[in-house]
Structure of Radical SAM core domain-containing protein:
Amino acid sequence: MFIKFYKNRCDLLGKILKSNLHNYIPYKLNYAVTYCCNSRCNICNIWQRKRSLHNELTLFEIKKFFQINKFSWLSLTGGEPFLSQRLVDIVKCASEFLPLEILNIPTNGLISDEIVEKSEQIIKYQIPYTVITVSLDGLHDNYLNIRGIDGFNQALETYVRLYYLGRKYKNFKTYIAYTISPLNVGLLRDFVNDIHCRLAKNNIDFNLSNIHLNVYQDSDYYTQIKLATDEQHNFYSQAVKEIEWYLKHREIFNLFDFIEKEYVKFYKIFLQGNRLPIQCLAARSSFFLDPYGNLYPCINYLTKICSLHDINFDLGQIDNLLLKKLRNIIDQNNCPRCWTSCEASQSILGQLIKLVL
C-alpha cells in the first residue's frame, strides 16, 4: 500500500516535469462525463446543448481507455457530473487502472442526497487527494439571477454535508466554487461575510481558503452574456479589484493553497492585458475529453484532435504532426486564450521551479 502510494506520487512528479517536453503524453484528463445539467445558468450554455446519452462512452470503453493511458490526475466535469448514473463506476475504473493522485469533481449541489451518497462512495476508493467543489456564486436573489433556478439553500446544504465528510475522511476536501461574472461583480466580500456567519452556526470556520475563485471570460461555453468592449473593460476592472482583495486576505497553508493563490494572482495579468501570464501546457499536460469520446487540446480550444474510437483508445496513436501543430499554436498564443483552473493549475505546476525562484 505504502509502496504504491509513494510510487504514484513520484510518478506524478516525473510527469509534471516531462510535461514541458514536446512529445510527452499528458498526465491529466479533463473528462466531461455528461452534458446533462439541471441548472439553467445565465452565464453558461452547456445546459442548452443537444445531448445524446446513448452516444456517451460506455463503461467498457472507459475501462479500456484507462487501462492503456496512465493518467495521474482526473477531473470529471459536465454538465452536472452527478446526474451521470455511471459516475461512481467511472471513478471505480479509474482507481483500479490509473495511478491516480488527484481526483476533482465540480457540482452545482442541487441534488444534495444523491451527491453526498455518491461522494462518500467515491471517497472510499482512497484516491489520495479527492476534491469536490460546489458552485455557489451569489446569495438568494443573486444566485437565482445567475443560476436560473432557486437552488441556493440546496447548494449550501450540499457544501455543509460535504464539509463534514471532509472531517471524516482525510483524503477528501470540498470548496465553494465562486465565479466572478458581470452578474455578481463587486459582491464577493459580502458573499464571504454572509456565508461565514451562516456556517458559523454549523461550527464551520468559513474563510477565503474555502473558496475556489474563477472569472467569467469569453469562451465556447460562456456565451450567454454579450459585453461591448467598454462593458468588458469595466467588468474586468471591477473583477481585478475583487481579486486584489482576495489575494490580500487569502492565506496559504499547503502546496495546493499556493497553486490556488498563484492561479488567482495570474488572473490579474490575464484580465488586464488579455495575455497568458505563463506558458499554457494544454495538450502537453492535459487533454479535454467530451462525453462522446472526442478529444481536444483543452476545454476552450475545441479543435478536435481525434475520436478515441479512431485510435483504438490509445493516445500513443495520435497523429504526432497534428499534435505538434496544435501545441505550436498554443505556444504562440494563437489559441482562444483563456485562464481557467482546468488548464492553469497544471501549467503552474509544470513551471513551479521558475515561479518559486
Notes: The domain at 2-356 is CATH 3.20.20.70 (TIM Barrel). The mean pLDDT is 90. The chain is about 45% helix and 15% strand.
